Amino acid sequence: RQFVIGEDLSAAARHLTSDWTCGETHSFDMLGEAALTAADSARYLQAYDTAIRQVGSLRPPPDIEQPSVSIKLSALHPRYEAQQWPRLQQELLPSLIALAEQASAAGVDLTIDAEEADRLELSLQLFAQLIAAVAPPVRARIGLVVQAYSKRAWPILHWLCELAMRHDTQIKVRLVKGAYWDTEIKRAQQRGLSSYPVFTSKAATDICYLACAHWLLDHPQQFFPQFATHNATTIAAILHRQPDATRYELQRLQGMGADLYHIVRAQHPNLRCRIYAPVGEHRELLPYLVRRLLENGANTSFMHNLHDPAIAIDSLASHPLQLEPPTFTALRNPAELWPQRINSRGIYLQSEIQRQSFFSELDNYRDRLYGGSLSATTNTVAVHNPYNDGLVGHWRSTDLAQLNILAANAREQQTSWQLTPIDERVAAIEKYADSLQTQRAELVALMARETGKTIENGLDEIREAVDLCRYYSQQARDLLTAPRHLPGTTGEDNQLSFMARGTIACISPWNFPLAIFTGQIVAALLTGNTVLAKPAEQATLTAQFATQLLHSAGVPTTVVQLVLGTGETVGQALCAHPAIDGIVFTGSLTTARAIQIQIAHRNGATIPFIAETAGINAMIADSSAQPEQLVKDIIRSAFDSAGQRCSALRVLYLPENTAATIEQLLNGALTQLTLGDPLHWSTDIGPVIDRDAHAQLLDYLAEQKTRKRIVCSLEVPAEGLFVPPTVVRLQRIDELQHETFGPILHILRYSNQKLETLVDDINALGYGLTCGIHSRNEQQALRLAKRLRVGNIYINRDIIGAVVESQPFGGMGKSGTGPKAGGQNYLHRFIVEKTITLNTSALGGDYRLLARQ
After folding, report:
1. What number of other Cβ atoms are within 10 A of residue 352's Cβ?
2. For the segment 40-84, what is each residue's pLDDT rounded down to a tens digit?
3. How far apart are CA 639 and CA 746, in angstroms?
4. How crowded is residue 853: how many other Cβ atoms within 10 Å of its Cβ?
5. Which of 161, 208, 506, 646 is labelled catalytic?
6. What is the DSSP annotation of 428-486?
7. At what angle do helices 153-166 and 120-133 cross, to 10 degrees?
8. What is the pLDDT of residues 127-146, one digit of tens each?
9. Active site residue 646
10. Which of 537, 612, 739, 805 is catalytic?
11. Is 323's pLDDT higher than 60?
12. How many CB atoms lie within 10 A of CB 764?
């Protein structure tokens, strides 16, 4: 009732007369977030169509402006994203043109709302095409929202001015402060951007708002400004700048600023005022309501401070230029997010300038051959692209004699490497991290062609590898720079120091061919160990490329060496080799058990085994879960990377009373995904890794189809090793006997009375890698989380993409031994402890005690 004018326009119409009497008109907005499915976008399109017709039939008093309609472009297409630009031109633009022409015919202004920064350039492109496509009378009724908290607000107005002059039209611009500030900050930090797309202080936003307001007022031929604000100082500045109140209008949100606007209109009777009035059902209200409550409750909000008797009016009414310098020292730049290390650098692909520069570089490596000079011998392996079977390169497997030589080299160099000062070891690893970022275009292309990784997945993996290098370097400095003095009795000095274990066998998987490969090796190297690295045979070329970068960064060639071949031959020989002093492994549970048996039968010292293995990962959603957010997180968790993540979602629990709605939404959203070439930016899902995996997954799906368990399954391209993203229905979780390592999600329904027993069912499987919980009941979510025997639990988000340092990754039970990768305990497993006790009183007494120190 406070923030929404009605559940539909018929209900809203009952409130219009009182607002008209106060001299205010309306801009109606159909509540709801971005469309996820084609059905959603069709429903929103119909809602906008109906709204335009109904608003056009309203008859306000002669002195009141006709109400208008605001639309969100993300509601008109389920894939309103820059990477889907060709689809948007074909599917969204015609709908937008039709709405604009309909609104013009009805005498209704149509305003395109602003959304997240990711969609800014996309919105401007569509707006320009819309203006160019319609007749002049239609153009005159089209408006755009510009957010002053955006650092691009000022150049956007210059761009719009040029667009208006080109088409000889006047553009209605609603200038707002902005409503997604915390989202923009979080995304910039997550992506490692060079800076934030928004201002990080309220004063800076207010200053930008006034600068933009002045620009709009100074160009009356090109703009009709609509100033949306509840700040009295901002309104006063606008009135002072342009006393002719007929040259613009003010706007406020439904339920906010009514008293302020009443006073302003009493002083300026000619001033036009409009209420931004959301219309929608209560089930669509929550996201909008949360944004409004946060804005009202923020301690920088004018509305909040207005009601605080402790804040003086003079202070409240200060011009933002008179305030303290507009900085926010508590908010670090994205590169400085971590206190003791530099954040890895990302690429903002939503920016056309950055995107085209990176893609141009990427084009240089789409056809490059690796190891092409190798002659065809019995131990030479050809690598083919899982997407199109194109040749990527060759590598040569290691035989037993070569393994013995490599092991001898590692043993011989280990003492020398351990005695290398920690600062030198760290410098080499940090130089390697820098080179990963320098070479990221080639690495992205190579991983896409060798292992089927999409462009975004490849960039994320490079960033994870860089973060692991820098985080472990920071930890190694803290751990190994100097011995630690321990407490003890008078007359003794006790020191704890750490030594490398010796030579570590690092066995990495193909699904993270760079990040896991790098993390294992770097942890071993920084702690003074030498390394024999055995990458999965499907990711050998990537491992060779990374190893060359390590050597170029200053790590001696005999300190980290590659052992290449299959797990059944070279892998077993490596694990059994007497020169190995520790094994770190990521892969299947079956292989981990085989390695454990080998370790148990070794002669000599017992060696440590760090294992991260499979997971039958679940997500529990209760009846309070927000459906749209839940479905987005399900799709990313289950189908990103073609489901080939050990952390991927395998089993989804849905409550019986909401399951049908969520499944329908999930199926609709799933059909919007694009399968294709991983090196095309529009591709969501690439191929699976090889023919064996492809055949096994298809056999599994054929079995489920025979059992009539298939809920939804997509079509796949004719070419390439694609497995259809599929949803399978189960009755019990124990029907899933092993991990299905592909784009396959299993759904189970449960009654609310059995929510607590789901934890017992998950724990009973014995796996414990990742788990998700979706609930608006935080106490219930935390209670479930505490009972789950799982290494990584995510509440109200997806369950993949663990972040180094803040989300250390690793499981328990059948899912791993720990310690967690990217966590504060990981390096300890690569070292041994040594205590030295010195009897300081042996020479006649403790000089410190005698000196009273």
Report:
1. 14
2. 999 999 999 999 999 999 999 998 999 999 999 999 999 999 999
3. 12
4. 7
5. 646
6. HHHHHHHHHHHTHHHHHHHHHHHH---HHHHHHHHHHHHHHHHHHHHHHHHHHSSPEEE
7. 10
8. 999 999 999 999 999 999 99
9. yes
10. 612
11. yes
12. 11
